[in-house]
Every structure is written in C-alpha cells, then in structure tokens.
Fold this sequence. Notes:
Low-confidence stretches: none
Bound molecules: cytidine-5'-diphosphate
Number of helices: 9
Strand content: 15-25%
Radius of gyration: 17 Å
CATH topology: Rossmann fold
Structural class: alpha/beta
Mean pLDDT: 95
Order of helices and strands: EHEHHEEEHHEHEHHEH
Distance between the termini: 12 Å
Shape: globular
Number of strands: 8
Number of domains: 1
Amino acid sequence: MNKLIIAIDGLAATGKSTQAKRLSKAFGFIYVDTGAMYRAVTLFGFNQFPKGSVDLSLLNDSLDQILIHFEEVEGKQQTFLNGKNVTKAIRAAEVNKWVSQVASQEVVRTFLTKQQQLMGADRGVVMDGRDIGTVVFPDAQCKFFLTATPEVRAKRRYQEQLEAGLSGTFDEVLNNVKTRDKQDQTRTIAPLQKAQDAIEIDVSNLSIDEVFEILHTAVLKKHESIHR
Length: 228
Ligand code: CDP
C-alpha cells in the first residue's frame, strides 16, 4: 500500500477514532487522534488554573509549555501531556465541557494544526477530527464525514464511559454531544463541516464492522484509481 492521507471528520462520538485505529492497522499507517490533542491542551488549562475552569487567555499565552505525544502501550495508543499519560484524564466530564471553547481559539488551532501537518508529512496516515479534510489536509486523497443521530451517539458514548469507569449520566452525555456539535459547527475558525469531496456516511443504523467495511473498500478503490 502506497502512502495515503485518510481524513475522518464528523460529529462528536460517531466512532471516528475506532474506525481510524482499525484502518491504520489494516494499512500499516500511523494514526493521529487530533481530538485527543485538543483535549490535552484543555486538560493543561485546567491544571494551570485549578478553579474548575480554564482561563483562555492564560492558556493561549502558555502554549509553548505544552508537549503532546502519542505512544503505543501494550498495543494501545496512549496520549501523553508533558511526559504524563493522560489517556483517561482527557475523557473526563470537565474536559468534555470545555474542549470546544478551547478549540475555538485561533492560537490553539494554529499551534495544533502545524503539529498535525508535520505528523502526517510524507507518510501513510489516518487522522480523525473536525477539520482534517478541510484545513489540516485539504489535499488528502481519502476523506470521510461521519454523522448519526444525537441519541445513537450519546448511547454509544455513555456505554464507553461506563466501561472506562468515568462518571456522568446519559442525559449529560447527550447534552454534551449536542452542545459540542453546535459550538464546533458555528465557530469562526476551521468549523466542523463536510469537505466538499468527502464521502458522508450516516452510521446510525450501521455496526462498527459495517462502517469499517465501507471505509476500507473506499480506500482500496481510491488507492487503485491513483496507482493504476
Ligand atoms: O471523540 P469525540 O468525537 O467526542 O471528540 P474528539 O474527537 O475527542 O474531539 C473533542 C473536541 O475537540 C471536539 O468537540 C472539538 O471541539 C475539538 N476538535 C477540533 O476542534 N478539531 C479537531 N480536529 C479535533 C477535535
């Protein structure tokens, strides 16, 4: 398989990372979870201003103190913030609540977009997020945009949170996915929107395997058309 950039964007909790991980394994590409990067910056903001909130201007001025990297631990990709494994911490309810506000800041987006572009330069990569096909890699060869009803998404995310031992009720999860979508879609910089050349898939009534099959087949087809 030649190097390709596969961009998976979409609404909150549509299973983008699950699909991105599987595709990266299937093709031997690296996987970059850009949502985890925005979440890690948000967590840094919390630790910096421990009053149950994030001071956006203080955070914007401190981005040079933030180092995010990914590492494979026992076969699973983990997120590190300044050397500390924050994989679970970045899924906490307060991060869910603040991350879209942090992600609407221009300096934060510039800071992370540059890193994402470097991570994907000259190699096969699967990257998931909100603006990968529109801003980070507008020339990506394969672009997907995942959607589903808020209820389906909240149900899956709530289940994941229970399994991970994280707190929060179903209604809180439902409200959070709706609020984040709205904030992500209406922000001025790099809003969440389908790239005009992305394949849109409504995953509401599809299993993880079915979605994977659609994505996998589309990537193979694209690869074939490019390298014919
Ligand atoms: O997993 P889920 O879909 O719930 O969210 P995520 O991918 O972890 O992203 C968390 C938040 O980060 C999103 O709601 C966006 O506000 C922000 N984000 C972004 O603005 N741009 C990206 N490329 C990725 C995430």
